Amino acid sequence: MAAPASGMNRFYLLLGAIALAGIAALVYQVKRPKGVSIPANVTVLTADTAGFRGYLLGSDSAKVEISEYADYQCPFCADFATVQFPAIRQQLIQTGLVRWRFRDFPLNMHPHSRVAAHAVACADEQGKFWEMHTAIFDHQSEWSQQRDASGKFRGYAQQLGLDPAKYDACMSSAKYAGRIQASLDEGTRLGVNGTPTFLIGGRLYSDRASTSDSIRALVMNLIPKAPQ
C-alpha cells in the first residue's frame, strides 16, 4: 500500500516544481527591462538644445575644432572610433591642438542607431559619455544584428558602473530624442549625407578611409606657422 502513496507524493512534488517555475518565469517577464524604442522625426524643442552643442572632448582654447557626424551602427564609424580615434585623441586632443565635437547622425538604414545614441546620452547624465561611446563602438559586432539591442546597451552601462535604475528611467523616457534629432538636422543642413563625416576648418570631409595621419595633416595646415 506504500507504493501508491509514494507515487502520489512524487506527483505533487513535480506539480509544485512546475508551479514555482511558472511563477519565476512570470516574475522575470514582469521585472526584466523592456525593449526600448526612440522615436524619429520628433519636433525639436528649445529645451532639447539649450546649452548643448555636442559632446566635447579637449581644451576650450584648442586652435582647431573638429565636428564628427557619426552613426553608432555604421561599420565605418566603428572602424574609425576603434582604430583611428585613439591616435587622434593622444596626438591632437590631449596635446591641446584640437577640441573634438561629436554629433549624432543616425541613418534610417540602421534600426539601432537612435537607441545607441540615446544610451550614450543617458550615460552622459552619469558622467560616462566617452566610456559608453567607446563600449558601444568596440562591441558593435555583438549588438548590431540583434533584434533588440537595448539589453546589450544596458549590460555595457552596468559594466561601466552606471546606476541601473537611473539609466532605465532615462531610456524609457526617450528624453533625448529631440537632442538626437537636432544633431541630425544640423548635419543635414551642412550637407552631411553619410557617416562618418568631419567638419574641419569650415569644410566637410566624408572620406570613409579618413586616418589619424590625414586628419593631423589637415589640422597642422590650419594652425598658423610661427614666424621664423
Structure description:
This protein has 228 residues and is an alpha+beta fold. The protein has a single domain (46-222), classed as 3-Layer(aba) Sandwich (Glutaredoxin). It has helices at residues 2-31, 46-49, 75-93, 113-125, 129-138, 140-143, 150-159, 164-173, 177-190, 212-222, and strands spanning 55-57, 64-70, 98-104, 197-200, 203-205. A five-stranded mixed beta sheet has the order 1-3-2-4-5, sandwiched between helices. The chain is elongated.
What is the topological layout?
Elements (H helix, E strand, L loop, with lengths): L1 H30 L14 H4 L5 E3 L6 E7 L4 H19 L4 E7 L8 H13 L3 H10 L1 H4 L6 H10 L4 H10 L3 H14 L6 E4 L2 E3 L6 H11 L6
Parallel strand pairs: 2-3
Antiparallel strand pairs: 1-3, 2-4, 4-5
